[in-house]
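chain below, 177 aa
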Amino acid sequence: MVRSDRHPQRLPDSRMSTDSVPKLNSPTELPAGSVAGAGTEAVPLFDVLVVITAWNIPEFVRNCLQALFAAPLRAKMKVVVLDDGGSDGLDTIVGTFPEVDFLRSETNLGFIRANNLVLRRYWNAARYFLLLNADTTVEAGAIDSTVDFLDQHPEAGIAGCKVVKPDGTLDWPCRRS
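prediction:
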C-alpha cells in the first residue's frame, strides 16, 4: 500500500504524456475523487483506493472482489477494476458489485501502465493506494491493519503485505532481503 501524500504530482512514468494515455470507456461518469471548499485543500473521500487490473481472468476478479467485501472494514475503501483490453465479459461480473467502479481500456496496456492510468484518474480520491493482483485473496483485517500501520508510522511511504500460498506457507518471493 502506498501513501498518497508521498507521491509527486506526476507519477514516476514521466515518459508517458497525457497525449499518449489511451482512452477509457466507462459506463458512467465517475466523480473527480475529492472534495474541496473555497480556499481549502482537496480532502480524500476514501482511506484506501484498491486498484485491480485484469485481462481475461473474470473468475479471479470475482474471487478477489468477494474476498475484499466479505469482512467489514473500519477503513473507508473504494475499489476500481480496469479491464485491460480483455474480451471475457468482465463487466458482467463487476456489475454484480455495485460499489465497484469499472473502467475498460481499448487495448492491453500491461500491469504498470494500466495501474498508472487508474491512479491518474483517482489521484486525490484516497489517502492510500493498494495495487492488487486479481488472483489475490485479501484476508479479513489485512487492509485495516495496513492502514493502521501507515497511520502510526508517517515516516513510511509504502508498506507491503505478507503473501501466503493457499496452504498457508509464506510465499518467499514476496520477501525482500
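Strands lie at 2-3, 24-25, 34-35, 43-44, 46-54, 77-84, 100-105, 126-133. The chain has one domain: 2-8+43-174.
thats it, cya
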